[in-house]
Amino acid sequence: MINYIIRRILYAIPILIGVNLLTFALFFVVNTPDNMARIHLGVKHVTPEAIAKWKHERGYDKPLMWNSAAQGAKQASDTIFFEKSVAMFAFDFGRSDEGRDIAHDIKTRMWPSLAIALPVFMVGLAVNITFAMLMAFFRATYIDLSGVVLCVAMMSISGLFYIIGGQFLVSKLLHLTPISGFDAGSNALKFIILPVVIGVVGGIGSGARWYRTIFLEEASRDYVRTARAKGLSELSVLFGHVLKNAMIPILTGAVVVIPLLFMGSLISESFFGIPGLGSYTIDAINAQDFAIVRAMVFLGSVLYIVGLILTDISYTLVDPRIRLE
Amino acid sequence: MSGPLLVVENLKVRLDAGKTQVRAVDGVSFSIDPHETFALLGESGCGKSMTALSLMRLLPEAGRIEAGRVLLDGQDLLGLPEIAMRSVRGKRIAMIFQEPMTSLNPVMTIGRQIAETLHRHTGLRGEAAQARVLELLDAVGIPDARARYHDYPFQFSGGMKQRVMIAIALACEPDLLIADEPTTALDVTIQAQVLELLRRLQRERGMAVMLISHDLGVVAEMAQRVAVMYAGEIVEMAGREEFFANPQHPYTRKLFASLPGAARRGQQLEIIRGSVPPLDREFSGCRFASRCDFAWQKCSDEIPAWSEVAPGHGVRCHLAVTPASTQGVSQQDSEGLVGAALAAIAATDRGQGRSYTRDSLLEVSDLKVYFPIHKGLFKRVAGHVRAVDGVSLAIHSGRTLALVGESGCGKTTVGKSILQLIRPTAGSVRFAGDELTRLKGAELGARRADFQIVFQDPYSSLDPRMRVADIIEEGMVALGAAASPGDRQNSMDSLLQQVGLSPDSKFRYPHEFSGGQRQRIAIARALAVKPQLIVCDEPTSALDVSVQAQILNLLKGLQNELGLAYLFITHNLAVVEYFAHEVAVMYLGRIVERGTVEEVMQAPRHPYTRALLSAVPVVDAAAHREIIRLAGDLPSPANPPSGCHFHPRCPQAMAACRLSYPAAIDFSATHNTSCYLYMEK
Amino acid sequence: MMLFKPVLLWTDMLLWLLLAGVAFYVWRVRQREHLLQPWRRLLRSRSGVASAVVLLAFVAVGVLDSLHFRLPLEKQGNGAETHYSPEVLSVFDLTVGPLRKQVEKTYSSPFAAQLYTKETIELPGGKQVRDYPRLKFGGAHLREPARELAGDVAVTALQGSVYAFVLCGGLTVVLAIWLGRRRGISPGAAWTMVLQGRDEIPWRTLLATIGLLVLFVCLATAFSAKYHIFGTDKVGQDVFYLALKSIRTGLMIGTLTTLVMLPFALLLGIMAGYFRGWVDDVIQYAYTTLSSIPGVLLIAAAVLILQVYMDSNQELFDTVAARADIRLLFLCVILGITSWTGLCRLLRGETLKIREMEFIQAATAFGVGHFRIIARHILPNVMHIVLISIVLDFSALVLAEAVLSYVGVGVDPAMQSWGNMINGARLEMAREPMVWWSLLAAFVFMFVLVLSANLFSDRVRDAFDPRVR
Question: Do C402 and A27 touch (CB under 8 A)?
Fold first, then answer.
């Protein structure tokens, strides 16, 4: 087990290097630091001195990948790529192009994100499983059929519609919750409810339908027939046998996203004005702040890899057949 | 309590298959007495499992019971509400299934799975339930029950899982145990163990058993009464002795006649022509009429009624009620014809025997195939699975060498590594003087025309997306077997005829053929490149007995005609006795005994060979045999036991057996074995 | 001089390539019974045919909208070179002629005859009043809209319905005659067979869907000559026209993305599964790396880069359409890059399974080469997975377009798309009373397309997944 985790972490290193190389290539090869400076300082009337100053302040005044002017190992290390990447690996995200401390922003902004994403995740999982179980219990009846039709219809609706429609209905017409905004402490609750409800409702369609397929697949297996042959009721078959086996694919599919919950949701955060990492990223994209986007890409990859490792570990917890070697 | 325990009257089951309705069970009636073993015998798709499942009312969702009554102690189960039916399942009727691998919940400990039944029907919980479970585990012969209570199914072997299934079934002391092909998925030595267990439990507990099987041997050993099903109906029912001594229905007789065995060596096996009619329509005559040698007009015009030919012996056949003269005449006719054909074949067989030379076509010596096991932080190679560990054998032109062993002994790997489909780790494979292990690329490709393979599963061995013509042509093109496309078409036509298919079947796709026909296509594909040796990897074990006979006849005919050599890999000893010239018995990657078929089958020397032979259920009720019981399961080839690999299971193991592997000892020029029992001689 | 100058945009070219590919596939399928069978199964399901009809209607609009050209400008003197208008039009624009040209001043609600906002109007007498001015086109034929509007709408609706009824009647007759010929029975008998639903193809569902579609088209045609049925947007463009033009964008994103990623996913997935060893390691590394980057961020980053590049190289694009088109293509490419990993992983797994099948070993035993084994055995046996995942991905991609456009990294703002419509309308949400029609039009069109795509993909999966059978 320990061996396995160590190996996975070792595997993660080349992947993260790859991620870094890729983002680096994306950001700097097409788009030179000079271009960036010009964009940030305003395209017109920029003096070369101002550009040089901008680049120097942010460490962009070095060669990209290979410093032929330097000596020995410095040829590789005294470059933009090396300096920015190594800093990344130490989770030192540096400053944004606007001069803000990215690490500090992330630390303060991940809590609002989590306040939305975590309830959406947990409640959503519970709701989806419940609906899927209901459909599986009434399989091949009109209840099941109408459930599936409803799911397909719900998953065909754009996520934006849920948000806009929800805001319109709940906040504008019924005045139940504020349309958007956020507050600290327990005051945050009234701002959280609507995004959470909308997040859960928007996910029911695809989630419940997928889980239903898993339940039905499990319900057609031989051991279920054995359980029925024991004289168990349909409910104890479903809860005692099917659910436990179906939880293997469901849980392991869900575990991957747990670390990514920190990143928040891009869309709903910006719609609801929640100062989380999702809206942070969107703002950075709109402001063309490469430093922040790069930091978020790296953070997302790290969290995804953590999620993969957690998935493997969770396999061993729910499935006795699997031993990590 | 007198009278039958279970009475089934006119049971009809329909299966929805899209637009059509399949009459899977069509008017089946029988009864089972208390303490009796009743066997339902039939080939795949005849409706025997559906019958069993409808007794429990556990049909798959597409199925539904259309008519009939199922009386358990006079109470109609089909009329019970579902809630009441649940107290019947597991309590009064229990069931075990064919696939022990998938029939247990993989994420629940076996202890809990057994206790669940107890809890459901007796309310037993906690300590008391656990004590009872341990008792049950002991009773079904699971060693060290207390330690294994908390184990999961994957930690048990197939035979052990079936024992757990039996323990679940027995938990509430049911009146009737339905066993649906309980040993079909198991090896023959394990099968013997499980059958023995079932017999003992029935004796001790006095329950009735309904055994469902396709295996005449298993039925002969287990049943008191036998019913034969064909196409959704029971066609014959009788007590065991009567049934095996005097079968009446033409279908039953054909089943007996199509069994391979030593007694039929040199003869052709009887086959049942045609195939089972589709069951989605109403029948106006006998269902077997189109395949029956004795059918006359009446058989297709009138549905035969059930008639008693002797007390307790009923048959659904017009022959049973009409004078025996008609019967005799037609039978003589057919025997005359078949007899002549057999004589001809026997003659060619002898002819082949004479022309057989001492030079062997294929010579394998000290073949080893190891698969690495990766372990640790950097997945270093920590050990090897020794799938094949020093096998030597030789095959002559026109002869058949049977490689016999249980699943996991490495016999298939031997076949594939001879063909270089798996590259051997060490050893030599000489084919007609060429060392195949050293050939590479084009050189090896050029030789591939000489040796071909026929696989076990006729469904996965043909590409479902290719037409038969493309399938057969592939090898011809790759190996340049025929010069022009025209030549290829011609030789394809004659090949298809040779294997008993019409030439226009080449434009069809594999899914349009039955299992037996697919196997014929696979044989035609192998023959297309004119090989000298064909490795037959269990070519008949996925097929029904009557179809197996067709394929064996075909292979035998081709050998006589073309002088082919076969490496026949199988676990079926009856087929070996019928088909092979020489036999090699494999155990855990090594050959433990080899010789001519007479030597090995009639005078087996190695204790494993003896146990294997004794474990095969035999149809002949008169033949008394003593089963040599083997303890435990096949050990892992990753970690074989020290010394003789067989010693932990050997009833005659000695101190020396633990220390080192015994050398081969010759009994004759052809017969040898590796066993310490014969060391001093 | 030419009547028009054809314009072949990059995405048009790829679309035609795709259609050629589809045609080739159809030709191949028609020759092979086993390939035809799943499609037959698909045609026998009711939701299958209904969704297929709706999808085909969308595709027809999209294809018509992909035949681009530029009209010549007025000639300036003899002998001078003909200049073409910088505006790129499509055949679709011509067919819906009035919709494109009837531009109002600003917002107006559906079926309105007046603008949505009050303006100072100069009366003939020189007096000025603040009132809702009349629209230039919407309901312009009415003298007193307040009184006549309802009646006129009813009459027009009736007209449209009559057209639709006649068209449907004609269609049914044609069907009955054709089906009768095909099945060798009289048209009357064929009609009763259709009516009673006894044929294997669900004609009733098919006819009902087509009927609804025809009705919609007839009503829309009848109305849009006189009214803006979905109102107008901020600059007075007809919202119905915008929604129709967005179909092409949605379809392009849904299909070209797949076209872009398919070669990678197929080649790499099969190679990884077939050759295993270090090839597998490298390919697995590549797709794990790519899939570990959050998709939206990768897309955002890539589109930002493109934006910067295009801003600094504006001279490369001669028309606005060409510029928007490049951005659309690039979006497809980058969406493809982020989404090939899923299919690649699936194909790798399936290939690993297939390569152990005995028919592959049989081919190896004949000495058939790796390339031939892949082409003849593995590729045909994974095609059903490819097809299922193409259809499944389609609806997700259409939905993704809207979200990306909202984030600001979607298609070019100058391009009509549902995402841009939603994004534009969102800013008017706070307005009292609300401007809701753009939002609604975009959501309804998207919903219909995605719903039919989802239903269709369900049926495709049922028909093609070997496990379902």
Answer: no
